[in-house]
Amino acid sequence: MSNASTLHEEARIVNGILGEAAQAVRDRSREIAEQVIAPNAVRYDEEGCFPKEAIDALNDAGYMSMIIPKEYGGFGGSNVDLCSMLLEVNKVCASAGVIASVHSSLCVYPLKTFGSETVKQKYLPKLATCELLGAYCLTEPEAGSDAANQRTTAELDGDHYVLNGSKIFITTGKEAGLFIVFARTSKEDKPAKGISCFVVEADTPGLTVGKAEIKMGIKASSTTEIHFDNCRVPAENLIGERGRGFNIAMEILNGGRVGIACQGAGIHAGIIEELDAFTKSETRNGKPLAYQQDVAWTMSELIAEHDAAEALIFRAACARDREPNPIRECSTAKLFSSQACNRAARRAMQIMGLKGAVRGNRVERFYRDARITEIYEGTSEVQKIVIARTI
């Protein structure tokens, strides 16, 4: 049995334990990934274009509405189902994977969890069909890892809030139709206490999309600035309690971290698949590389770390389905998976040498895509702080 087949079998075993629904989602997601997304992945990367075919195929399967309840037109699935899909998508295209993750984990989740019934009725059906694609606006020039240092303001004016300020590094900023936005509603409270959360439509006057970043990886996922200039948002678009936005942001990010853990493990699986094929076709001293002890040991370690990452991911997903904010499980999955996939990328590149470094090679793309997994949704250093506080 090949390493790729072994990974597929391991997935079946894991999903068999977690339930038939997740296995069905994963099997169908693998079909979409292999038949629709993979043939376009190189083009997405080279052209830096929005992966339309990928998102359309996932939407047609109902998977872009994975965690939206059925009463709002969604799939009605669990976090385990969402992870089952994200693992397969990220295995072939990390850009499509992060777009799907942000849409569900960072936009849908806060609306269905903290939004009023009015907000849910207004937006969840449109998010369910991808009529609106979701994005998340937290990061600012002076509020990265220090997310409480928000400078964007929201002042109440009658039945509207007026937003002013700027956000940076917003995933899917160019294509999104709906933004979850954090802004300061009180200057008197302590920094983490004076922030509120809003849902803002992309076509709201005063909201503009700024510069798009040119990145080393996940190039088909736009990363932009978002500016607010006297942007008037209906007061009913406040998500959760006024002044409780920081707590909401942290809970949202906790789920987002599981999505990025899936990105890391998906990339990791793709690396193993590519390296498996390479080491069986390339020879050293007349024997395939796969039969050389040093290479075999490396492959074994990569597979063991990948399997451990998936186990941590499904543990976190199960915990998140049971309770709203399982901090340790989510941060542990994100820390381990992101570090493991970066190790896998470096080791695969070392084994493949210049053949692995050539543009268009999957490992070269994985190598570039992997780096961001240790940075966004909380750096590895932040995850270590978070995990230490749970002891």
Structure, explained:
With 391 residues, the chain is an alpha+beta fold. It folds into three domains: 3-128, Acyl-CoA dehydrogenase/oxidase, N-terminal domain (Butyryl-Coa Dehydrogenase, subunit A, domain 1), CATH 1.10.540.10; 134-245, Butyryl-CoA Dehydrogenase, subunit A, domain 2, CATH 2.40.110; 247-389, Butyryl-CoA Dehydrogenase, subunit A, domain 3 (Up-down Bundle). It contains twelve helices and ten strands. The chain has helices spanning 3-18, 20-47, 52-60, 79-92, 94-114, 117-128, 245-281, 293-322, 327-352, 354-357, 362-370, 380-389; strands at residues 134-137, 153-157, 160-171, 178-184, 195-201, 207-212, 223-234, 238-239, 283-284, 287-288. The strands form three sheets. It has a four-stranded mixed β-sheet. Strands 2-3-7-6 form a four-stranded antiparallel β-sheet, with helices on one face. It has a two-stranded antiparallel sheet with strand order 9-10. Strand 2 (153-157) and strand 3 (160-171) form a beta hairpin. Helix 2 (20-47) runs antiparallel to helix 3, helix 5 (94-114) packs antiparallel against helix 6 and helix 7 runs parallel beside helix 9. It is elongated and about 80 Å long. Residues 1-6 and 9-13 have low confidence and may be disordered.
